[in-house]
Write a structure and sequence with these properties.
CATH superfamily of the largest domain: Isopropylmalate Dehydrogenase
Largest sheet: 12 strands, mixed
Number of helices: 12
CATH class of the largest domain: Alpha Beta
Distance between the termini: 14 Å
Structural class: alpha/beta
Oligomer: single chain
Number of domains: 2
Shape: globular
Number of strands: 12
Length: 333
């Protein structure tokens, strides 16, 4: 039997639901059966989260990776953040919580880059808290891309039926047009095609590409992005042997998902892709970052400060994120 991969899980923002859903997830037999997990963050924060569990959860904290006992039944926690987390108020973002979340991300990426762990699952963070701490990235995806020196990454959301990659991610809807370019779309499609081949073993992926305007622009009546940007990008990748289809109206393309097989979809902006995915699998979706030299997944929800500390957070998406990270790690190895 192959040895189970080691998955590092960052605690996310310590003021949010990340620590709670992690503890709940790691109590799941479905998770324990596919990987060995370690939590990167604060031992005291994870201990507080463990107290919300109906059964006692034993933690095994260490200050270095080498000191962790991965074969123990206790939950291994790599303590790597400042003790200032004691001052954090649950349910409220702050500079301190943002700094703690960033330190956990940095350590997890360091371990994955060194080969000490097989994959990284990142807990939910507050972008505002990260910004307060001086980490002015649009999101964790861009932060991790910088840490790994990666220039071309793709944010993709996954459910059991859908895989949706995004061309633009966290920007205002009014700015989407300015961020769309032939080169950007070509780059995202190429990364997606490579990932589908390398990690899922799809020999000739079929990729559905969304238009950005209603009715795919209707011949230019509703915008010029389709004929001037998206169509030339699709033609370019098709010349390289990539089976990209479109641009098609997003409402039609996603509606066809029940009858017509696409291995993945490319959406032009955040909500265009995430609305159908969350309609399909709310609370069970997983965020995967393509193009990195490491494996990284995360749950598809945020910090949920309004319910943090109440013990009622649903761990479903975190469970799926850990399971997917383990599957990708086994395939990679």
């Amino acid at each position: 039997m192959k040895e189970k991969p080691i998955v590092a899980i960052t605690m996310g923002d310590p003021a949010g639901i990340g620590p709670e859903v992690i503890v709940k997830s790691l109590a799941s037999p479905a998770v324990r059966s596919v990987c060995r997990s370690i939590v990167i963050g604060s031992a005291s924060v994870m201990a507080d989260a463990a107290e919300m569990m109906p059964r006692e959860v034993e933690l095994a904290a260490a200050d270095t990776f080498e000191q962790l006992h991965l074969q123990s039944e206790a939950l291994p926690v790599l303590n790597c953040v400042s003790s200032r987390v004691e001052s954090i108020e649950i349910g409220r973002e702050s500079e301190v919580s943002g700094e703690a979340a960033a330190q956990a991300i940095t350590k997890a990426v360091e371990l994955a880059s060194a080969g000490s762990v097989s994959a990284v699952v990142t807990g939910p963070v507050s972008k505002r808290a990260l910004h307060l701490a001086g980490y002015t990235y649009p999101g964790q995806t861009e932060f991790i891309a910088t840490l790994t020196g990666t220039s071309e990454v793709v944010m993709m959301l996954v459910s059991k039926r859908l895989r949706v990659a995004l061309v633009t991610t966290h920007c205002a809807l009014s700015d989407v047009g300015a961020h769309l370019s032939k080169e950007a779309i070509i780059g995202k499609i190429k990364v997606l095609d490579t990932w589908l081949r390398d990690y899922l073993g799809v020999n000739q992926p079929t990729i559905g590409v969304c238009a950005v305007n209603p009715h795919a622009g209707d011949g230019g009546i509703f915008g010029r992005e389709e004929p001037e940007i998206i169509e030339p990008a699709i033609e370019a990748v098709r010349r390289e042997g990539i089976n990209a289809v479109g641009p098609a109206s997003a409402d039609t393309l996603f509606a066809q998902s029940r009858t017509k097989r696409y291995d993945a979809y490319v959406a032009m902006y955040h909500d265009q892709g995430l609305i159908p995915l969350k309609m399909d699998a709310f609370g069970k979706g997983v965020n995967v970052t393509l193009g990195l030299p490491i494996i990284r997944t995360s749950p598809d929800h945020g910090t949920a400060f309004d319910i943090a500390g109440k013990g009622i957070a649903d761990p479903g998406s975190m469970i799926e994120a850990i399971k997917l990270a383990a599957r990708l790690a086994r395939r990679k190895r």
